[in-house]
Specification:
Number of helices: 14
Helix content: 25-40%
Strand content: 5-15%
Distance between the termini: 49 Å
Shape: globular
Structural class: alpha/beta
Order of helices and strands: HHEHEHEHEHHHHHHHEHEEEHE
CATH class of the largest domain: Alpha Beta
Length: 329
């Protein structure tokens, strides 16, 4: 039986076993990471534990990280059946190299980052991630640290909000929205997701299926949690924790993340660098990967029908090359 088939046999690895969060591209993750008994994996974004469950069912060991204490508690309970082959660690994946439990466990045989917001977070109004349910304007992955989105919305200047919505949300009407927010908060500070979403809909109008507040909420969430900064740090710090032949898999959900991962993996996968002004190609000092996904993998029809949130997922993966030994001239 293949690892993939084995993973599907265990109820804890079945997405339907938990309504907390359905793991995206789980079959593809298992096929790329190739879990087997005795191998050790780092799940940097544990969430509901769906991907970890599939790896554990194949006989592997997993160290799971997450900033969200609710996710950690849920995954620890759900995956307790796997005993000491599974460990949970409260940490941001960007800080993995600084976490004692991770450093002592390394080197790993593979690592995974699933950068999506969990269904539980989106569907829990108290977390303030979504405008579909009115709740406090929070959006923090770790509610015990950092500042909520309300503080940013109520204190940032019009120019700062414009830049944030434009850069992180790719919102073409960023200035109009920022100007309206600054004017409205003078009358009544923003405290609720529904309050902010209603203002944005009033300013931009509503056309089609996508709510006009979608890009602004994405931008605020990215800013509040320093998501791009965390990803940038993780791309640099996680590969050294992996052994030669290990695989690093990253699932992104918007273009800013995907472009960052694509550029980083591409740079690290080029053995030679060449420029028109050079007489000959030169060795790439950053060469350390074998690119496994020249084009990103996306969810197929049956998965997106079952889980619409998978539609925007893109998976990229690389394999860690052995350290190169310098040959004396």
């Amino acid at each position: 039986m293949s690892n993939l088939d084995s993973a599907k046999k265990h109820p804890a690895a079945n997405p339907d076993a938990s309504r907390w969060h359905e793991p995206v591209l789980c079959d593809e993750v298992v096929a790329l990471l190739r879990p087997a008994p005795g191998l050790l994996f780092l799940d940097g974004t544990l969430g509901g534990g769906g991907h970890s469950a599939a790896l554990l069912q194949a006989g592997a060991r997993v160290v799971g990280l997450d900033r969200d204490r609710e996710s950690l508690d849920h995954a620890a309970s759900r995956l307790a059946v796997f005993g000491d082959r599974f460990r949970v660690v409260p940490a941001n994946f960007a800080d993995a190299a600084d976490v004692a439990e991770v450093r002592t466990a390394a080197p790993f045989d593979g690592a995974l980052l699933d950068l999506g917001v969990s269904s539980h977070q989106l569907d829990t109004p108290e977390r303030g991630f979504s405008f579909r349910h009115d709740g406090p304007l929070d959006m923090r992955m770790d509610p015990a640290s950092g500042e909520p989105a309300a503080l940013l919305v109520n204190t940032a200047s019009e120019a700062e909000l414009t830049g944030l919505f434009r850069e992180y949300g790719e919102e073409p009407q960023a200035r109009r929205v920022a100007r309206a927010i600054v004017a409205e908060r003078e009358r009544l500070p923003f405290t609720r997701t529904g309050q902010l979403a209603a203002l944005i809909e009033k300013v931009l109008g509503r056309r089609g299926r996508v709510h006009p507040a979608t890009r602004v909420f994405q931008a605020l969430r990215i800013a509040v949690n320093d998501e791009l900064g965390s990803l940038r740090r993780a791309l640099v710090t996680i590969p050294p924790l992996l052994r030669a032949g290990a695989r690093f898999v990253v699932i992104t959900f918007h273009s800013l993340e995907d472009r960052m991962v694509k550029a980083f993996f591409r740079t690290g996968s080029e053995q030679w660098l060449d420029r028109p002004e050079w007489p000959a190609p030169r060795p790439n000092p950053e060469w350390r990967f074998r690119d496994l996904t020249r084009k990103p993998l996306s969810a197929a029809g049956p998965e997106t029908d079952r889980n619409p949130r998978a539609r925007s997922a893109h998976l990229r993966a690389v394999e860690i090359l052995p350290l190169r030994q310098e040959v004396a001239a």
